[in-house]
Amino acid sequence: MTRRQLLSALIFIAWCAAPHAQQTPTFPSRSVTLVAPSSPGSAPDVLARQLALRLSKKWNATVFVVNRPGAGGDIGSESVARAEPDGYTLLLGSIANAVNPHLVAKVRSDARALVPVSMIATAPDILLVHPADGINSVAEFTSWLKSHPSTPAGHPGIGTTPHLSLSTLALQSQLPFIAIPYQGGGAAQHGFVANQVKFMFGTSMGVLGQIKGGRARPLAVTGSTRIAALPHTPTMVEAGYPDFVIEAWFGVFAPGGTPQPIVDGIAGAVREVVTDQDFEDRLNTLGARMTFMPPVLFAKHVSAEHERWGRLVKAANIRID
Hints:
- This protein has two domains: 3-122 and 247-315, 3-Layer(aba) Sandwich (D-Maltodextrin-Binding Protein, domain 2); 124-221, D-Maltodextrin-Binding Protein, domain 2.
- It is built from eleven helices and ten strands.
- It has helices at residues 3-17, 43-59, 74-81, 96-99, 138-146, 161-173, 185-193, 204-212, 260-274, 277-286, 295-315, and strands at residues 32-36, 63-67, 89-94, 114-129, 151-155, 177-181, 199-203, 217-221, 247-255, 289-293.
- Strands 1, 2, 3, 4, 5, 6, 7, 8, 9 and 10 form a ten-stranded mixed β-sheet that branches.
- The N and C termini lie far apart (43 Å).
């Protein structure tokens, strides 16, 4: 264990030992709004509804999920950043909050304008190829791609984690391929199944259906560990890319200026519901993994992610025209 990991572990233990849930006995005294900055059925929406259901029972107060999609999640994030900082309007944010500021000149809102409350889940991307192409491993894929320059590869849009995964693959491997952007995960999967592109990275929460249906073959996941839904699929690290770890993350944010006792109280409630085995099992079936972080560690993670993706965006010359 590194010194940084040890410090994080000590911070986590100390935070968990404190009675956060008892610091705000009157919260909530009315319904809470949880904004999902994406369309119904999307990964953030699914997670928001799973979380809202359990928090409603925990608090004995209704937690409403409101979808506010658009601008890569910025519209929903902005609405929460401008809300009253009292804990009654929350955001189910994601890695997009750390990536978008590097892609848009005038981003509406980013994670730095919000208060990180707690991370709840992570989900890797999955490298997919067509079963009919006979490619069974990353090594075979690498060899095949070297002999097929200018191969088209699909992704759901600029700045999405699959796009970041493709960009990372390009930088680390120097393999020749052409990245084709689609308008969303559904469109990217449709293009893949229609053989418009020969391979793609897809979010684990979005492509398991294609894998189970035999329309896509998984070669590797981009997470730090294998996922329960695909226990026999190796990580990119295991497949020979030691620095290839990319995971979408999802977490709760509050408006800037929200009092710390309220933030800690919400985080305490979130921890209680997401560490329940039922929630973990549900995430596993979706291709995700329960990953809880308290406010201080989540804030450090968001900051580190902002710096990390800024470097990649610059190195890969990623931009939204």
